[in-house]
Design a protein that fits this description.
The protein is of the alpha/beta class.
């Protein structure tokens, strides 16, 4: 179970996000009523990884951050982490940038570009949620990891299938799946989520 305290910062975040969403449709209108359960809570599933692996500080890249998940909730919950969100869709990046400014998140940076154009930087931790199949996203993420760093892929029902399909890519980068951390979302219907933890030798 992921333990999350609904602080004033998260209440403000929900308010700011919903105001942006009314104009930009970052998530569907049907999803708005589940903003916490399906998006904020899910984004913070990574707390289970941070706690298990004793991560105290990190330079994090969120690939395909979209409307700001998981990068914004992570930046709120962990002000000591440096968090960078990258996405190629300008309206989404502008929204995340505005949300970060409204919340005074000085540890959040956003980049509007394709991740393959990101040169000259390496990260301790890379995340990706609802972007692409594991094998494809590994191609983008693994070259940007620092030695001993971690790639955390948020996955659901097809985790094992995607892992099977990603074996060639993992081998190419001398990468290994260290862990699969499972949790459920706080909804009546059972939504099982998995954090696939990958590292390169």
């Amino acid at each position: 179970m992921v333990k999350i305290e609904i602080t004033a910062d998260f209440e403000k975040y929900k308010e700011v996000f919903l105001e942006k969403n009314s104009k930009l449709n970052l998530i569907s209108k049907n999803e708005e009523k589940f903003l916490f359960e399906k998006h904020i809570y899910d984004s913070l599933g990574i707390k289970l990884f941070f706690e298990k692996y004793n991560i105290k500080r990190a330079d994090i890249l969120d690939i395909g951050c979209g409307g700001g998940f998981p990068c914004v909730p992570i930046a709120i919950e962990y002000p000591e982490f440096k968090v960078t969100g990258i996405d190629s869709i300008r309206k989404k990046i502008n929204a995340v940038k505005d949300i970060g400014m409204d919340l005074n998140l000085q540890n959040l940076e956003v980049i509007c570009d394709r991740v393959e154009n990101l040169k000259g930087r390496k990260f301790d931790i890379i995340t990706s949620r609802a972007v692409a199949e594991l094998g494809k996203i590994c191609e983008y993420a693994l070259p940007l990891l620092k030695k001993g760093g971690y790639f955390i892929a948020y996955k659901s029902r097809k985790t094992q299938e995607e892992l099977g399909n990603a074996q060639k890519i993992l081998k190419k980068y001398n990468a290994k799946v260290l862990d699969i951390i499972t949790y459920t979302l706080p909804l009546e219907e059972v939504y099982e989520r998995n954090l696939v933890v990958i590292s390169c030798k």
